[in-house]
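Q: Could you fold this chain for me?
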Amino acid sequence: MANHVSSLKRARQTETKTVVNRANRTRVRSSLRALREAIAKGDVKAAQTQFRETVSALDKSVQKGVLHSNTVSRYKSRLNARLKALATAKA
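A: Sure. Below is the predicted structure, expressed as structure tokens.
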């Protein structure tokens, strides 16, 4: 365990940031899972609305430093491609 005042403070800060980051990561993963389930069901309307919510959650995670911007760009690109393929298949 930390002994110095500064290292005790850093330990407290780390615990706080861990809780915040975990909550953000959970929100992003839940949103991604909901979108993937909507795509799997083939519901275009639900998938499109969920896509907007997921993109918003992903962008917020970049702003908060939870995910890297390139990772989020890759996620958005792949999910958009799957959504587009679903929409064209249904049309």
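A (continued): The chain is about 85% helix and 0% strand.
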